[in-house]
Specification:
This protein is of the alpha+beta class. It folds into five domains: 21-150, Agglutinin, subunit A (Orthogonal Prism), CATH 2.90.10; 156-288, Agglutinin, subunit A, CATH 2.90.10; 301-344 and 354-430, Hepatocyte Growth Factor; 483-568, Phosphorylase Kinase, domain 1 (2-Layer Sandwich); 575-800, Transferase(Phosphotransferase) domain 1 (Transferase(Phosphotransferase), domain 1). Helices cover 25% and strands 25% of the residues. The strands form ten sheets. The protein has an eight-stranded mixed sheet with strand order 24-23-31-27-32-29-30-28, with helices on one face. The chain has a six-stranded mixed sheet with strand order 33-37-38-36-35-34, sandwiched between helices. A four-stranded antiparallel sheet has the order 1-9-10-11, with no helix packed on it. It is flat, with a radius of gyration of 33 Å. It is found in: Cell membrane.
């Protein structure tokens, strides 16, 4: 028998060697021996990001991109071939080319995309990092990076990435929106550094019109982005040197996942990932109002902040491309349904001269032309009709304004102080014909009695119509600016205030309904001593404050002594109804915890994110309203500001809400936002227990005071006994303990020892750990805490108050060594 020779075996071993080389390649690396095709992917070492082929939405176009590993919905952060998709990903390949570049080839072998760099070595590898960046490195020297995707952002700005300007080459690193929600091709909105070299960022439409600026950098924040002062998550850095200007950021907590996106809506948006809900939360966006985006709806498209959709075509026009509109790209605008009767058409036998459609409450389009020497609306209209290119006119302030060609930047239901009337030119067939003269003949033969009845009916109809039209305008304005109501309007909407929902220190609340069946809540204020001008000024201020966890103020009424506020109606009512007056278990622990988080988010917004800090002064379950899905919204958040500080003190001492008042209300010292923190803490106890804190203290039974029970059980590490018995122990014990500790911190006697609402929110969301709190002095008196109980635990934040430390020392007689051990055991 002849033994096989090495020469005959070696060809058979070559495929095996290739397989071994592939297996030895790292799971985050594309090498000369490993390429990607079809559904193959590589994943960063920590599993944070994935690189591979994907197709957005329902399209049949494939792209090479990077997306988050944790998000099941495939949220991409970078796209290689955003302008040139491939049709078949199974026959396309992403690989290292012979010249060392990373390239994408289609099924025919044609080059679709390349890193396009000149490398000193053709031996390179591509590695996907946990930062979301794809690096092209020298295979033998990993520190030699020749190209990385984070330097070429698409629509997403990741931590560590730069947005800037190279002063030598003139190259910019900018964010460019997708064309629409399913097309990564470059859209018309860009976020970039001012090319003139100033330290501010612009959002540009079509690379020409700047409609938003960050303001210049002042070494701490951008001047027009005050929200940066309330930052607990990011470290921002702006760098300017002779070669480049750029802005970058990093996460203070590397476990937090966040991103900035130049959205197809024309807004720059900041999202943060929440593991608990497996969803992205929108934290910030600019411009704040969607309709502030330049030409969002394209030519002859009108933006409306109050509509179900922001963009719609004006009268006589239809979407140029409806499929693009449905995907969020309205830049194509609208086209006429019927051509104008002008020029050759005006000489036809069936000629009907164009007419004008009146559009009230409009933001006028850009690029108007002023015609001098025209002193009336009729003359202005005639001047527009005599010019075939004229598409609209407006006569205001004895001036005639006309527009030629396309109309851009229209906005419907604009703010009343700046709104104008626009006359839109349309073909005659687009508008209804004049009333028939037959009605005149009929009226002439009708007897005097019938005529009198008709006149009375017309008068009644006009009065009714005016009232209904006001309410209909109010219905359409829901979600937009404040609506001024007549008192009679609200009488009609509430059926003469017959359905009372409840009442409180500021007045009574009644349910009402607008003509389009939109439910509203109307509050009649009592004891208000402000003048008309002051009331309207402060109401308009409150009306501009919008947050998902604040009840929306829709309008107001101020007629003499009648002062009323109109709010959105909350279907589930107030939190106290479900906590104290119901035997059902609608409020499971998860729901209660989300209510606590949402309330904290609304309060943090009032305290820390509004231009002026707003103190609520009356936090309690009655002022927490719930929508259909039990999402919380804080009510009466502006009434303390409306009533004034003096009235608030009288309210709390004479007929206030006992059991929620911070000690400083009693001592008479100036009130700060920490008074709301105290009230929030007392309410958090009630969310946990499902009963009033003062429920069993009416007869002097201090043992029934729930906060004292919490303090006692925390020491015993027996938190399960604190939960509402109706829940049957069904709760997340970690969240329960966190809530109880946090509530004890919130009700500290010394307000400097209480956390801010921003810190409260971070604790509830799991971004900060909370240590064992000291027992407030008032609770120690009630519970008669033994002297040998160690209470020197402190709240783990970036700054520890010295007053808190002194309070902890005064509350215990333990040695300094014991206190040190206690502090060490409460690590963040």
């Amino acid at each position: 028998m002849v033994s096989p020779t090495i020469g005959s075996i070696f060809p058979l071993l070559l495929p095996l060697f290739g397989l071994l080389l592939d297996l030895c390649s790292a799971a985050d690396t594309i090498s000369a021996n490993r390429s990607l095709s079809g559904d193959q992917t590589i994943t960063s070492s920590g599993g944070h990001f994935v690189l591979g082929f994907f197709k957005p939405g329902s399209t049949d176009r494939y792209y090479v991109g990077i997306w988050y590993g944790k998000d099941p919905k495939l949220t991409s952060v970078w796209v290689a071939n955003r302008e040139t998709p491939v049709a078949d990903h199974s026959t396309s390949v992403l690989k290292i080319a012979d010249d060392g570049n990373l390239v994408l080839l289609d099924s025919s072998g044609a080059l679709i995309w390349s890193t396009a760099v000149n490398t000193t070595s053709n031996s390179t590898v591509a590695v996907l990092l946990d930062s979301g960046s794809l690096q092209l490195r020298d295979a033998s020297n990993s520190s030699m990076v020749v190209w990385q995707s984070i330097d070429h952002p698409t629509n997403t700005w990741l931590p560590g990435g730069r947005l800037g300007l190279n002063k030598i080459t003139g190259m910019t690193q900018r964010l460019t929106s997708w064309k629409d929600s399913e097309d990564p091709a470059p859209g018309i909105f860009n976020l970039e550094l001012d090319p003139n070299g100033t330290s501010q960022y612009f959002i540009l439409w079509n690379s020409t019109n700047n409609y938003w600026s960050s303001g210049t950098w002042n070494d701490q924040i951008f001047s027009l982005v005050p929200e940066m002062t309330q930052n607990y998550i990011y470290d921002f850095q702006y760098v300017s040197n002779p070669t480049e200007n750029y802005f970058t950021y990093s996460m203070k907590n590397p476990d937090i996942i966040s991103r900035f996106v130049m959205d197809v809506s024309g807004q720059i948006k900041q999202f943060t990932w929440l593991d608990n809900s497996q969803s992205w939360i929108l934290f910030w966006s600019q411009p704040r109002q969607q309709c502030q985006v330049y030409s969002l709806c394209g030519a002859f498209g009108s933006c409306n902040e109050n509509g179900q959709t922001f963009c719609q075509c004006v009268r006589g026009f239809s979407a140029r491309n409806q499929s693009d509109w449905d995907l969020g790209d309205q830049s194509g605008g609208c086209v006429r349904n019927t051509p104008l009767q002008c020029g050759d058409r005006a000489n036809s036998s069936n000629f009907q001269r164009d007419k004008f459609f009146t559009m009230d409450n409009m933001r006028l389009p850009v690029n108007n032309q002023t015609l001098d020497g025209i002193g009336s609306d009729d003359d202005c209209q005639l001047a527009c009709l005599n010019n075939c290119s004229c598409t609209a006119y407006s006569f205001a302030g004895s001036r005639c304004y006309v527009w030629h060609g396309e109309l851009l930047n229209l906005q419907d239901q604009y703010s009343q102080s700046e709104a104008s009337t626009l006359q839109l030119r349309l073909a005659a067939s687009e508008l209804p014909s004049p009333k028939s003269n037959k009605k005149i003949v009929i009226w002439t033969v009708v007897g005097a009695a019938v005529a009198l009845l008709v006149c009375l009916a017309l008068i009644w109809f006009v009065v009714w119509r005016r009232r209904s039209s006001r309410l209909m305008r109010a219905s359409k304005a829901v979600g937009g600016g404040l609506v001024p109501f007549w008192y009679s309007d609200l009488q009609r909407a509430t059926n003469n205030f017959s359905h009372k929902l409840g009442g409180g220190g500021f007045g009574s609340v009644f349910k009402g309904t607008l003509p389009d069946s939109t439910p509203i809540a109307v509050k009649k204020l009592e004891g208000l001593q402000q003048g008309e001008k002051q009331f309207r000024t402060e109401v308009s201020t409150i009306g501009t404050i919008q947050h998902v966890n604040l009840v929306r103020l829709l309008g107001f009424c101020s007629e003499g002594t009648n002062k009323l506020l109109v709010y959105e109606f909350m279907q589930k009512g107030s939190l106290d109804t479900h906590l104290f007056k119901s035997t059902s278990t609608d409020l499971k622990w998860k729901t209660r915890y989300q209510i606590a988080v949402g309330t904290a988010r609304g309060l943090a917004y009032l305290h820390e994110q509004c231009r002026d800090c707003i103190i609520h002064c009356d936090i309690k379950p009655e002022n927490i309203l719930l929508d259909d899905s039990f999402a919380p919204k804080l009510a009466d958040f502006g009434l303390a500001k409306l009533m004034g500080r003096d009235f608030s003190r009288v309210l709390t001492t004479m007929r206030g809400t006992r059991g929620y008042l911070a000690p400083e209300w009693i001592t008479g010292v100036p009130i700060t936002a920490k008074a709301d923190v105290y009230s929030y803490g007392m309410m958090l106890f009630e969310i946990v227990s499902g009963r009033r804190n003062l429920e069993n203290t009416e007869e002097g039974n201090t043992a029934g005071f729930f906060p004292t029970l919490v303090a006692s059980e925390l020491m015993k590490e027996n938190i399960g006994s604190l939960l509402d018995q109706r829940l049957g122990g069904d709760a997340d014990l970690e969240e329960l303990e966190r809530a109880c500790k946090l509530a004890c911190w919130c009700i500290q006697d010394d307000e400097s020892c209480r956390p801010t609402m921003g810190q409260v929110l971070q604790v509830l969301e799991g971004f900060l750990e909370v240590a064992m709190p000291p027992i407030p002095r008032s609770l120690r008196l009630l519970t008669e805490t033994p002297e040998n109980i160690n209470i020197n635990f402190f709240y783990q934040t970036q700054n520890v108050s010295s007053s808190q430390s002194s309070q902890s020392k005064s509350g215990t007689s333990n040695s300094s060594q014991t206190r040190s051990n206690a502090s060490n055991s409460s690590g963040a």
